[in-house]
Amino acid sequence: MIIGVPKESYPGERRVALVPVVIPNLTKAGFAVVVESGAGAAGGYPDALYSDKGAKVLPDRAAVFAQADIIVQVLCYGSNDITGKADLPLMRRGQALIGFLRPLGSVEVIQQIAQTGVSSFAVELMPRTTRAQNMDALSSMATLCGYKAVLLAGVTLPKIFPMLTTAAGTITPARVFVIGAGVAGLQAIATARRLGAVVSAYDMRPAAKEQVQSLGGRFVELPIEAKNAQDVRGYGTAQDESFYAKQRELLGRAVAESDVVITTAVIPGKKAPVLITADMVKQMAAGSVIVDLAAERGGNCELTQAGKIVVEHDVRIIGQINLASEVPYHASQMYARNLTAFLTYMVKDAKLRLDSGDEIVRETLLTRDGEIVNPRVREFLALPELAGQGVK
Ligand code: NAD
Fold first, then answer.
1. Catalytic residue among 111, 139, 283, 305
2. Going edge to edge, which strands form the sheet with 315-318?
3. Cβ(180) – ligand 1 distance below 6 Å
4. The ligand 1 atom nearest the CA atom of 205
5. Strand (E) positions, 244-348?
6. What pLDDT score was predicted for residue 391?
7. Per-residue b/e over 239-263, b at no fewer than 16 CB within 10 Å?
8. What integer best gives the mean pLDDT of the chain?
9. I want to staple 212 with a disulfide (CB 3.0 to 4.6 A). Which of 63, 110, 201, 237 is the partner?
């Protein structure tokens, strides 16, 4: 079985799906690896490192697709809506495709992927079980986004983060407020604490309180309760607009008192809730910074523009997207380890085991034999149930 690693084509993307260090593990499991020349260069992994570990470096993308039984990418078509479509003609029936595919995104796009006949696996659909923890690429990338968001805030804020007692007087620490204490939010809390900020955080899931406190953050309690705040997979659930309106009202003070606000509140497959209005931004001190990690999903701040820095009322609202790509060396390393765990789990007798009885396979398999086969995705996209639903 040959695994192919094309160069990422999304503009500005610096990650690569496999790094040289995982190749011996894949070889041991019976795989061979072919890599498009230059695929790892932007992440700090030159071609020679791949060759040293036994991978074959191929000069062009089409050759990688032609030789590989399994294509691994970071942003496949689906999550790459700018240049991803160009890969469709290179895919073929029976070939496997693994990567970020945005399975709850556009039905047309997923149908186009299905029509190529590839068996595609969306890493976003990885079940959140102990067994699949080392395959969970969404968590790996969220961790890095949380870290990077704090660094961005740090270089933008006209203040320093730590408290300093100097001959020139005492500097009070910066106040950082994190909204949404999932994987990204928790890493943001830990990073801001390490830099010396005073950190508080809020999440609508009551379970987050203890996690925030264990990282040394203060949990901001609001006198409202979300209905079924958490779904079976641990994700936050969508609430009605009156809940969000109440949240905005109650969050106003905590936002106004903060130098930095980092927002990470998202709901799978839905537009992110607006938790910070333009009015709330106006109440913040001049020079304050908001880093909106939900920017790509519509933003948690009303003023956020995806991919841009907006300055309003002297507050900088950073809507930069694809932050994990800004730390491509480690992002690629983590992603490659997640994929390696997934691939070695799925391989049996030199074949990928497409066994519907296996939870990890069943939940991640998005398309097969020309159809969108994932029951959860079909239901979400309002597609009729397939006859004999599931994989063979
Ligand atoms: P996420 O990226 O989907 O969302 C980020 C956070 O925003 C969540 O904590 C969510 O509750 C919060 N949020 C959504 N709407 C909100 C609102 N209106 N107000 C306030 N907060 C709001 O979440 P995530 O990072 O994927 O993590 C969610 C949970 O799943 C965490 O507890 C995490 O530890 C857990 N998790 C478990 C596993 C595993 O068991 N293998 C893996 C990853 C994450």
1. 139
2. 218-219, 198-202, 175-179, 260-263, 289-292, 315-318, 309-312
3. yes
4. 11
5. 260-263, 289-292, 309-312, 315-318, 347-348
6. 46
7. beeebbeebbeebeebbbebbbbbb
8. 95
9. 201
